[in-house]
Amino acid sequence: MLLLMLASTAHADDEPMEARGEVIVIEGKAPPATPPKATNFKKRATPPYSDRAVLSDAWTRAWLLLSIDEKGHVDGIKFLRKPGWDLEKIATSEAFKLTFDPALDDRKRPMRSQIIWEMEWPSAWWLSTFVGTRGTAVPIVDFPPRRLDSHVPCRGSGPLHLGSVHPVYKDCSKPDLSKIKTESWITRP
Question: What is the pTM (predicted TM-score) of this model?
Answer without folding.
Answer: 0.79
